[in-house]
Amino acid sequence: MGSKNKLKRFKENETFSNVIQPTRDELVEGKFDLKGQWKKSFFKNDNPIVLELGCGKGEYTVNLAKREPHKNYIGIDIKGARFWRGAKTAEEDKLENVAFIRTQIELIEYIFDENEVDEIWITFPDPQIKYKRTKHRLTNANFLNRYNAILNENGIVHLKTDSEFMHGYTLGLLHGLGYQVLYANHNVYKNEGSPEVVTSIQTFYEKQYLEIGKPITYIQFKPN
Fold it and tell me: CATH number, domain at 179?
């Protein structure tokens, strides 16, 4: 994508009512007014809140919101030029249960309060295979602790990935930490028992993976 196109999308994001772009200082200094107030101040309802972390173009955020209007969906990504597509679609389709936040995922504890979130989707994250990149892996122990801090007592996490490494690493870690694995499968499109929500929504890259026969894995889990 050219720099002109990126700038155009950044400017358009500023006009969207469903895009929030807090500064790092605003979050860390506790000046983000929506923390703990998402249902009351932003969505103006008492419906469950579902996050998509590293949302990319926002395919899951938007399509889940269309499927389940009784839930509020928030896509989070640092790359605003990517989620511009999802934000624009949500605006055009007048989806009032969708928001996008441009920020780093490690800051989510400054954005959401304890027990404020009901579900988290992690869709096709970078597996960060190199050892030096382990700290950026979205299912490492530090990130799991961040999710626990904002999930309510019945909150669940979904991990959908094309990376067998990420799937195996996460399963091993979850068992070691005593998490409750509700469902796990290393090839959801070959398993008739896979949850329908996992196979009915496909990201842009996922479609490409499926065309070359790459297995898509899925884990659903929650803290004990």
Answer: 3.40.50.150
In a domain, 183, yes or no: yes
* Same domain assignment for residues 162 and 191: yes
Instruction: Tell me which amino acid residue 14 is.
Output: E
pLDDT digits (tens, 9 = 90+) for 12-58: 899 999 999 999 999 999 999 999 999 999 999 999 999 999 999 99
Looking at the structure, do residues 166 and 212 belong to the same domain, yes or no?
yes
Average pLDDT over residues 104-131: 95
Nearby residues of 143 by Cβ (< 8 Å), 6 or more positions away: 105, 106, 137
Instruction: Please report the DSSP string for the chain in residue order.
Output: --HHHHHHHHHHHTT-TTEE---HHHHHTT--TTTTTIIIIII-S---EEEEET-TT-HHHHHHHHH-TTSEEEEEES-HHHHHHHHHHHHHTT-TTEEEEES-GGGGGGTS-TT-EEEEEEES-----SGGGGGG-TTSHHHHHHHHHHEEEEEEEEEEES-HHHHHHHHHHHHHHT-EEEEEES-GGG-TTS-HHHHH---HHHHHHHHTT---EEEEEE--
Residues 79 and 141 in one domain: no
Active-site residues, by number, are 126
Task: Name the residue type at position 140.
Answer: N
